[in-house]
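Bug #77: duplicate submission created two jobs. Keeping one. Sequence:
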Amino acid sequence: MPDFTPTQGKYLSYIHAYTVGFGLPPAESEIAKAIGVSAPSVHQMLKTLQRKALIHRERGVARSIKILADESTIPQWSGGTITRVETRWVSTRSQRRSARSTRLARSVARSNQRSTDLYVFKITLVGSKPPIWRRIETRDVSLARLHQLIQTAMGWTNSHLHQFRIGEQYYMDSRGADSDPDWVESYDGITVAKLVSQHGTKLKLRYEYDFGDGWEHNVVLEKITRPADGASYPRCTGGRRACPPEDVGGLWGFYEFVQAVNNPEHPEHEEKLEWYGDFDPAEFDKDEATAAMQIKLPSW
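Kept job's structure:
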């Protein structure tokens, strides 16, 4: 009897049919379209399939899904014709020259703006009670760099996928976006200043990290000011409470972990203590956060 549920079988069915038909695995965005679910749901399901040893994926490598389940147990795909869209860009010499000039002009403009504007963001872990939050200050940066600043200020380790959302528009690292304009856009070249010009000085973003545990953060632009003389940026100027451990199981798992690890009478105390060690949920040091923000994160 198959060691997977009917829903998991549907995912395996599509991945298997796609791989056989095209000679390579599907992108997560293609799975989301075929199954009719959201991209975060696909990430969660793939994580479950990998945990059950039904598939294997290489972290940070697009289209790396390999089926480990017995293929004879996988149901036949019945969800309709499977298609694949390829986009190829071809540019002329004049277009490349024009693009270089445009990039140079934008670079100069960004440099000038970075020297005068300082962006103050408050980052709050959604659903945390009492709130787990940080306040950071940075010059104009790309969304890729803002991701790093959020990770280091909060205390995450950049061990999972992430994305930004403004309204209904999603922005993701180009390695994970898979060129799918329907639900996500690569954030390459997108900066804080550009978003402010589009959405105004009341800019609000939702930053989602680890689609399995589902850590969501409200990122609110509190003000745009000027850098202080002699100050070094980026920096963290405030915050409260410790960041949850990675892979703890989301907010509910985190609160259960805190109870267990700090209560010697808890039935899971020894297990949690061995898994993570001592944990003080009230611990936070803005100077340590600033030091981490000024060191580049490892890539995933």
